[in-house]
Write a structure and sequence with these properties.
Strand content of chain A: 15-25%
Number of helices of chain A: 17
Order of helices and strands of chain B: HEEHHEHEHEHHEHEHHEHHH
Oligomer: heterodimer
Shape of chain A: globular
CATH topology of the largest domain in chain A: TIM Barrel
CATH superfamily of the largest domain in chain A: Queuine tRNA-ribosyltransferase-like
Radius of gyration of chain B: 20 Å
Largest interface: A-B, 47 and 48 residues
CATH topology of chain B: TIM Barrel
Number of strands of chain A: 29
Shape of chain B: globular
Number of domains of chain A: 3
Structural class of chain B: alpha/beta
Helix content of chain B: 25-40%
CATH superfamily of chain B: Aldolase class I
Number of strands of chain B: 8
CATH architecture of the largest domain in chain A: Alpha-Beta Barrel
CATH class of the largest domain in chain A: Alpha Beta
Structural class of chain A: alpha/beta
Number of helices of chain B: 13
Bound molecules: iron/sulfur cluster
CATH class of chain B: Alpha Beta
CATH architecture of chain B: Alpha-Beta Barrel
Strand order of the largest sheet of chain B: 1-2-3-4-5-6-7-8
Number of domains of chain B: 1
Distance between the termini of chain A: 23 Å
Largest sheet of chain B: 8 strands, mixed
Largest sheet of chain A: 6 strands, mixed
Strand content of chain B: 15-25%
Radius of gyration of chain A: 28 Å
Helix content of chain A: 25-40%
């Protein structure tokens, strides 16, 4: 049995699956429902059939899944038990409607097929949580009552997320009877691997053409719509192909935010995912992507990549030490901001400021809230794109306010200077904040820039002198805190010195051995072996390998344990026993490394002893996507 | 551990038994006249629900999942005098009825529910009708009690079989009875020369529409082979305070389609001897809480079912005009079983816009 993941996007994945028998199929997989194998026709490209009764065998090269229904189904006279013609059999479970799922606890909440390959879960029963995990033989987990939970968003999402978690990364999750071209993106975002065409048929039967956009406007158009089933199916297939494509480009969330707008329940469901299930998404959410992040809707404010930025700042951020003047700046469309015309002009204006190294620039923006200058290359600060209209929604302003407050209280500023435009009352009404722009003035107006330079010069001239090198070390420390947390950053920086020219700074130990370097393209630190030793000693980012000789990358099958919350794209220190064996970039999060039997867990950069060490080897690589 | 029975018993303790306080134990719960087919002739029939102390199965085991009779049971059993005043009221309303059908919220042959003296008074009051039907659960039926009903040639005992599948009887209907118990009871009745009228459900809870159709047909076959002269198909309707009511409210169950009623009547007819009449008179037919179709064809289909009931002529069912909702029903039959749970979208059949 082989599950080969080609691309991941948070919980979504593409790739292929092959069972003990039957052909290999692609994910996400669309099951074609046929009342029996002898009825109906498959179309070009159909990979799998779901059917009630035989007799088989099904067409060559097609996966055949048989559903035995419920235990109350009158025994079917033909098709036998399906063993000889179905590749997978969904077992007959005791029926248990969601509203009774917790009341009738005499009914088992899970049922495994005779051959041990398929488990049906009454996901609406919260007592599923008390069940032992599925037997190791189980390949597919089927969520019963999925269709009737749709339309009750929090319950639906809760059930799907819990079932996804129960299935774990190594099994496929099938949601029967739910999928439409409208909700496929969302289902995939929740980690659903297998769907069917039931809704395509049901909608056709009531004269409806289903399209991915706007669920309620498609009225039957008798006479012009031809074979509705065929048309609905072809739309479904197109959406499956689109979802596969966007997952591979790490743009599923963008598609989800577009598609959920077709139906109110989907928007509610997405909100519930974002707010109630962050901890389930986080271990699967990459810390870095090369793909852009389009923050175009209200939901973008809540997406995990964005909220984890805010949360990381709130938990780990403190400004570079010795900075005394906080300058709040508007964002620019071009990223990183420093490359934009606006920020180059601001930098020019500030170039004459004495004691410049005591000035700390923080960019206020949405949806991230605030981006300290030293983190401007870090994902998603250098990757997001927003509609620039010049005015803010209250929740955007609130996020900026919270972060500014956090930065101010953790810093040691003598002065705060705002170069922001209008609309931020928390700054305008704060007497301790000087404003460099008058009413109606643009950020690049000469008067404003001059005023900014003069206010900053005035404030900075009182501060203790700080050298650029000292400041670079503090900027690197700030990045290290953001990336590894305060404890690890402290250990990593202990006795360290900074070398090189920004943004490609290097961190060296007292003996001149390199510990880490900033990879400008990713705005993140990559560790050397000696840096990795320090991180491991601090008790973070460790991945324990089994007892074997590690050459090349570490595969998931060789992982025996890992520190909690190593996320895809994180630095991962590979440890055998107590010994650091190497360091690289995690390709999977902790839960997936521990559960998966295939795929690269850590793309190695440095191995102990072997090969060249230090700079140069696969430098700056292995951080990005899932390629 | 809570099983279905515990759940039903618990629900029973909560449902509106208190309401029944206002019920007068000296008057019948309901009396109405209808038409029936008797010996090839349509005759006036009086049907009535006698108010009794209630169904033993309901009292002891929480009752059946679709049965709302308990909420019509008074807070205390009627006294003998009250029973006799009900009998007088029934006799007074008989009119020209040549067939009298007496239901209770349970079993006429359960001596704990209906005192034998009362049964005697009933038999005496209607000793001149052409047919007297009384209803009973199987376990209360004995040859001896059947004999107390008088001339077997004009006696019919009505028994609820509901389903011939013991798993459905137990896990869906919660009938507290198996097929063998029904067969025994039917044999006691036919052994005395009286007739058996059997009730069969269409779509008790947890069954899909397609499963329900198959299940009803099986039950009709079993009822026929046990010697029933009439099998009455009861599409499950929503009665207050029942499990079905709750599932319906939660959008996890819907009453069957009228197309399914037609399908069962047609398909079953082909597989039972012509000595067994198969009929249906859907309660709340055409309403959302009873068997219904899309809303446009319900009247036509109900009329056809009624014509068939009074003529025993299958042609009446073939004559139903087709409707755009038939493909929707077909799709549901094909696909519902693959959804691993309650059918969705709820309200599907009344949502078509053609
Ligand atoms: S259906 Fe009959 S047996 Fe079942 S609870 Fe109701 S009255 Fe009693």
């Amino acid at each position: 049995m082989v599950l080969e993941i080609k691309a991941r996007d948070v919980l979504a994945r593409t790739g292929s699956w092959k069972g003990a028998s039957g052909p290999e199929v692609r994910l996400p997989l669309l099951l074609r429902t046929l009342p029996s194998i002898s009825r109906g026709e498959l179309d070009e490209g159909d990979e799998a059939i779901l059917t009630v009764t035989g007799p088989g065998p099904g067409p060559d090269g097609v996966l055949v899944v048989r559903d035995l229904g419920s235990t109350l189904r009158p025994v079917h006279r033909d098709g036998g038990d399906g063993k000889d013609w179905a590749h997978l059999v969904i077992p007959a479970e005791d029926p248990l409607p969601p509203s009774l799922a917790d009341d009738l606890d005499s009914i088992a909440p899970t049922t495994v097929s005779e051959d041990g390959l398929v488990e049906v879960v009454h996901a609406a029963a919260s007592r599923v949580a008390d069940e032992p995990p599925p037997p190791g033989s189980v390949q597919w987990v089927v969520m019963a009552s999925a269709a009737s939970l749709v339309g009750r968003p929090p319950r639906f999402i809760d059930a799907v997320m819990r079932t996804r978690e129960r299935a774990g990364p190594g099994r496929l999750l099938y949601l029967p009877g739910v999928a439409t071209p409208r909700n496929l993106a969302l289902l995939s975002y929740l980690g659903v691997d297998v769907v069917d065409d039931v809704q395509c048929h049901l909608e056709a039967a009531r004269g409806r053409r289903i399209r991915p956009e706007l669920g309620h406007v498609h009225r039957p158009d008798a006479g012009t719509d031809g074979d509705l089933v065929a048309r609905n199916l072809s739309t479904m297939r197109e959406e499956v192909a689109l979802v596969r494509e966007v997952v591979e480009h790490e743009a599923l969330r963008e598609l989800v935010e577009v598609r959920v707008r077709s139906e109110p329940w989907q928007v509610a469901a997405l909100r519930s995912v974002d707010r109630q299930h962050r901890s389930r998404l986080l271990p699967y959410c990459p810390v870095h992507r090369d793909a852009p992040l389009f923050a175009l809707s209200r939901e973008s404010l809540e997406r995990i990549e964005v909220t984890s930025w805010v949360e990381t700042l709130m938990e780990r951020y403190e400004p570079p030490a010795n900075t005394r003047v906080l300058v709040l700046l508007p964002c620019s469309a071009r990223k990183p901001y420093g490359n934009s015309r606006t920020h180059r002009r601001i930098a020019e204006a500030l170039s004459s400021v004495p004691n410049r190294a005591t000035v700390h620039e923080v960019i206020l923006t949405s949806p991230l809230g605030a981006v300290p200058r030293e983190l401007e290359r870090t994902y998603p600060a250098a990757h997001y794109d927003i509609p620039v209209s010049g005015d803010w929604f209250p929740d955007e302003v609130e996020r900026m306010r919270t972060l500014v407050e956090h930065i101010r209280t953790t810093g040691t500023y003598d002065a705060v200077i705002s170069h922001m435009g209008p609309g931020l009352s928390f700054l305008e009404e704060d007497g301790s904040v000087s404003r460099s722009r008058t009413e109606g003035e643009g950020a690049l107006d000469h008067g404003a820039l001059d005023q900014l330079a003069s206010l900053v010069s005035q404030a900075a001239s009182d501060a203790l002198r700080t050298s650029y090198r000292e400041r670079q070390r503090e900027d690197l420390a700030s990045l290290a805190r953001f990336q590894f947390g305060r404890d690890v950053a402290k250990a990593l920086l202990e006795g360290g010195q900074v070398a090189g020219r920004p943004p490609g700074l290097r961190l060296k130990g007292p003996d001149g051995d390199q510990r880490a370097m900033v990879v400008p393209a990713r705005g993140r630190l990559s560790l050397t072996l000696s840096g990795a030793e320090l991180v491991a000693a601090a008790g973070h980012h460790r991945v324990w390998m089994d007892d074997f000789e590690l050459r090349g990358d570490l595969f998931a099958v060789g992982v025996i344990d890992a520190d909690p919350l190593v996320r895809p794209g994180d630095e991962a220190v590979v440890v055998r026993g107590d010994l650091v064996m190497g360091v690289g970039v995690a390709r999977m999060g902790t839960p997936e490394m521990l559960a998966a039997n295939r795929g690269t867990a850590v793309a190695m950069r440095h191995h102990r002893g072997g090969g060249r060490e230090g700079e140069g080897e696969r430098e700056g690589e292995g951080g990005g996507g899932n390629s | 551990m809570t099983d279905l029975e515990d759940w039903l018993v618990h629900q029973r303790s909560r449902r509106g038994v208190g309401k029944a306080k206002r019920m007068d134990p000296s008057v019948p719960a309901a009396v109405w006249h209808e038409e029936e087919l008797l010996g090839g002739e349509v005759v006036d029939t009086m049907a009535a629900v006698v108010r009794t102390g209630g169904c033993s199965h309901d009292r002891d085991h929480g009752g059946c999942t679709m049965c709302g009779y308990a909420s019509e049971t008074p807070h205390r059993p009627p006294t003998e005098d009250e029973y006799l005043s009900q009998v007088r009221a029934l006799a007074a309303r008989r009119g020209d009825a040549r067939w009298v059908k007496l239901y209770t919220s349970g079993s006429m042959l359960d001596p704990d529910e209906v005192p034998p003296v009362v049964l005697e008074a009933i038999v005496e009051a209607f000793d001149d009708v052409d047919m007297l039907t009384v209803e009973s659960r199987a376990e209360h039926i004995t040859a001896e009690r059947v004999r107390t009903l008088g001339d077997p040639g004009r006696t019919e005992v009505a028994i609820g079989l509901e389903s011939a599948c013991d798993r459905v009887l137990d896990g869906s209907v919660h009938k507290g009875m198996d097929l063998a118990a029904f067969q025994r009871a039917a044999a006691e009745v036919t052994g005395e020369g009286a007739s058996v009228r059997t009730y069969v459900l269409l779509k008790p809870p947890f069954l899909t529409e397609a499963e329900a159709i198959d299940d009803s047909i099986e039950a009709i076959r079993a009822a026929a082979s046990a010697g029933s002269s009439v099998v009455s198909l009861n599409p499950v309707n929503v009665q207050a305070f029942t499990l079905v009511d709750r599932l319906h409210h939660m959008r996890e169950w819907e009453p069957p389609w009228l197309w399914s009623v037609v399908e069962v009547l047609q398909r079953a007819a082909g597989s039972v001897p012509s000595t067994t009449r198969i009929i249906s008179a859907p309660t709340a037919g055409g309403k959302v809480r009873g068997a219904h179709n899309c809303g446009r064809c319900d009247g036509d289909v109900l009329r056809a079912i009624e014509f068939h009931r009074l003529s025993n002529d299958l042609e009446e069912l073939d004559a139903v005009p087709d409707c755009g909702c038939r493909p929707m029903w077909r799709s549901q039959l094909d696909l519902e079983g693959l959804m691993q749970g309650p059918f969705a979208p709820f309200g599907y059949r009344r949502s078509s816009v053609r």
